[in-house]
């Protein structure tokens, strides 16, 4: 019985044998453990400890490393407008990008649980993670291209704009000042100096467009006829020259769809658009009015949004980052969601909570540890963001999109030629990352003690 009690850990159980001298608690000799850990220590020292130490030492010397300058490089950093812009943009990245990516990952992870094709959706969202930052930067540099014929973002923006706002088809047209009665009247419009009379066709010749550049297949223009208030809008030019200026000559092309307004006392009393042959007809109320071609006939076509201009370049690059990393956040959060006790969710529904309340008061608190891991990981990641900014931002806007990692490169190797300042920026980046790492380590220790 005594042996049974001892073997089962009862009151008379024998104490565990002490480890032999020179061995660890697992029975491995100390020199064997050190031998196996030595390669890891060597790599850690060569790739982490030495670069950090050298960067701190190098940040105390001048550009070529020959003269000791103390903390002068750190002072130069905060006296440089480019570096201050980089600090501001880095703060924007840290505050905005991780929060958006985590929120999208949470939404995707929760919603994909409720659809049959959730696995396919997760695969599609996660696919950008397989693309390098370099490739993603090139892709989004093309997506944000200003020309709607090349940039997908502006192609969509132009399509939406043109759906609600009609654009001019004759942006470069203008009156033939030598023979036309049309004169500039402000805001890009043109108004006749004389008035129009019924039975006398109004001649509104325009120039400034090559006949072979007219949209569609324009018809030949003809002189308007009839007893009403009529007129003709046409291109007063034909290939090969010839003809009489101010009159419709054979072969001259009509300008279809030009809006003509009749103005009396500063008010528009009637309006019409020119037909396929360039003619238009106004109601009798237009008799005695002046004719005006509004600026909408000549406005430049809408070319989309300047995504990579000084104002939007940082949000545009953050959008590219979100596209890449939303899948990463979704997969981690979905893994955490798979471990949530479904009985808790069902109990909340039985108690009368709606889906929003279940999500906000049950799902999110249960996922809080996972969300913190994702958020902290992304915060560390965006502090060293470099590739996307360097590739996507064009040269004129690069200063406005600058971040600390990019400024480090520019100061050291990109023309600045000052490795002292570059090393100081690297040390500052390390100091910014350390608090986040400290919080993460404390959280991991608390999780381990539970």
UniProtKB/TrEMBL annotation:
Transmembrane parts of this sequence: 30-52, 91-111, 123-144, 320-340, 366-393, 420-441
Main localization (coarse): membrane
Ranges for domain ABC transmembrane type-1: 87-440
Composition bias, Low complexity: 13-22
Domain of life: Bacteria
Keyword check for Transport: yes
Subcellular location: Cell membrane
Topological category with respect to the lipid bilayer: Multi-pass membrane protein
Residue span of region Disordered: 1-22
A Pfam match: BPD_transp_1
InterPro entries in the record: MetI-like, MetI-like_sf, UgpAE/MalFG_permease
Keywords from the UniProt entry: Cell membrane, Membrane, Transmembrane, Transmembrane helix, Transport
Family, per entry: Belongs to the binding-protein-dependent transport system permease family.
PANTHER family cross-referenced by the UniProt entry: BLL4140 PROTEIN, DIACETYLCHITOBIOSE UPTAKE SYSTEM PERMEASE PROTEIN DASB
UniProt-recorded name of the protein: Sugar ABC transporter permease
UniProt source species: Streptomyces cylindrosporus
């Amino acid at each position: 019985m005594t042996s049974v009690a001892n073997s089962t850990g009862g009151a008379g159980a024998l104490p565990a044998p002490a480890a032999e001298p020179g061995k660890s608690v697992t029975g491995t000799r100390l020199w064997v453990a050190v031998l196996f850990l030595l390669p890891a220590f060597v790599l850690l020292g060569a790739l982490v400890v030495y670069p950090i130490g050298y960067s701190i030492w190098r940040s105390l010397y001048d550009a070529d490393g020959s003269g000791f300058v103390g903390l002068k490089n750190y002072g130069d950093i905060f006296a440089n407008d480019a570096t201050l812009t980089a600090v501001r943009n880095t703060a924007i990245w840290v505050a905005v990008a991780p929060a958006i990516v985590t929120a999208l990952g949470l939404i995707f992870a929760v919603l994909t649980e409720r659809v049959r094709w959730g696995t396919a959706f997760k695969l599609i969202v996660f696919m950008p993670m397989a693309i390098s930052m370099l490739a993603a930067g090139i892709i989004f540099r093309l997506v944000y291209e200003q020309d709607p014929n090349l940039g997908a973002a502006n192609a969509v923006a132009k399509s939406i704009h043109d759906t609600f706002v009609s654009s001019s088809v004759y942006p470069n047209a203008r009156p033939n000042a030598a023979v036309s009665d049309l004169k500039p009247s402000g805001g890009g419009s043109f108004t006749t100096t004389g008035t129009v009379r019924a039975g006398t066709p109004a001649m509104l010749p325009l120039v400034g467009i090559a006949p072979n550049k007219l949209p569609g297949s324009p018809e030949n223009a003809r002189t308007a006829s009839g007893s009403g208030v009529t007129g003709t809008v046409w291109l007063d030019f034909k290939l090969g020259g010839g003809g009489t200026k101010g009159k419709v000559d054979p072969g001259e092309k009509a300008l279809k769809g030009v809006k003509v307004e009749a103005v009396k006392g500063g008010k528009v009393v009637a309006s019409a658009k020119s037909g396929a042959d360039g003619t238009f007809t106004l109601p009798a109320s237009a008799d005695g009015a002046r004719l005006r071609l509004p600026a909408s006939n000549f406005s430049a076509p809408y070319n989309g949004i300047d995504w990579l201009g000084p104002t939007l370049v940082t949000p545009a690059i953050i959008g590219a980052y979100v596209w890449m990393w939303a899948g990463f956040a979704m997969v981690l959060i979905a893994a955490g969601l798979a471990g949530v006790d479904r009985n808790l969710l069902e109990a909340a529904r039985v108690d009368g909570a709606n889906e929003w309340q279940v999500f906000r008061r049950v799902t999110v608190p249960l996922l809080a540890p996972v969300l913190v891991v994702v958020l902290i990981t992304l915060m560390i990641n965006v502090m060293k963001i470099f590739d996307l900014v360097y590739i996507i931002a064009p040269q004129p806007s690069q200063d406005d999109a600058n971040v600390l990692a990019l400024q480090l490169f520019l100061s050291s190797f990109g023309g600045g030629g000052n490795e002292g300042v570059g090393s100081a920026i690297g040390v500052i980046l390390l100091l910014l990352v350390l608090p986040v790492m400290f919080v993460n380590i404390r959280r991991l220790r608390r999780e381990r003690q539970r």
